[in-house]
Amino acid sequence: MRALVISGGGSKGAFAGGVAQYLMEQLQHNYELFVGTSTGSLLISHLALNEVEKIKEVFTSVNQDSIFSSCPFIIKEDKFGGKQIAINHFTVLKNFMKGKKTFGESLNLRKLIERTLTETEFNKLKASNKEVVVTVSNLSLNQVEYKSVNDFEYKDFLDWIWISSNFTPFMSLVKKDGCEYADGGFGSMVPIEEAINRGATTIDVIILETEVTYYNRLPSKNVFSLLTNMHSYMADRIEKQNIRIGKFVAANKDVIINLYYTPTVLTTNSLIFDKVMMGKWWERGYEFADQKNNELNEIKANDV
User: Fold this and answer.
1) d(Cα 224, Cα 230) in Å, to the nearest integer?
2) Interval 261-281 mean pLDDT
3) If you average pLDDT over residues 108-137, what whole number do you get?
């Protein structure tokens, strides 16, 4: 069984979409299992339906308003042309006065998911031989959970996709089935092991970070930049651990893993959704996968 695993990475998911498009359209990889975390969970249902152009249109046309119903920060350009976030004090204060548990809310993302993945498409996916699995973090039970399309009805599965992508405390904290849930990346950033546990024998893994760290984080300018730096630090540690465990389990079960890292640093803040940049990242992902495949073919030719 061949599986596609896509890590978390916020707006960098556009790059993963380009890589996946190349793997499916040019290399003709037929995946029976799709496992995603966070932004990966937003991609995989449409990839399983082979609706690449539809999900590409979504990923390359969103902005902050598409995601946030209550955005807790404002975006500012620094003197080097980069983008930084600053606290939107009015929004944060308003949320606290309403008794919210998070700085911001992502109800618009839930609406976008429902507009994008229709019930007809969901039923088609459920009737197919493809399995789609999204990763969520159960904060109440202190465990990672994997939610398969085969186990839920339409509305519930949309909730799990949304929950998998909720980067708290900047986005919504969701209470479902008596438990509080948040972004799957808090527990499993790159769910390779889950793909193996579900029977995958060959896995293509798209990791939305560079293989080697190329930069030092800038000093924190406010509490939000401190929190994002802390979250990024923890995500890096979780990601590396997931990959190490995945490689170990794969080696013991004779599973083939193909890793696709981003070749360069795409952004230092994946909560900034810039449709122009995301459009470029999609194309770069496609081109990168093509380049990597050509290099592998040359190596194989030289070995013969």
Assistant:
1) 10
2) 90
3) 96
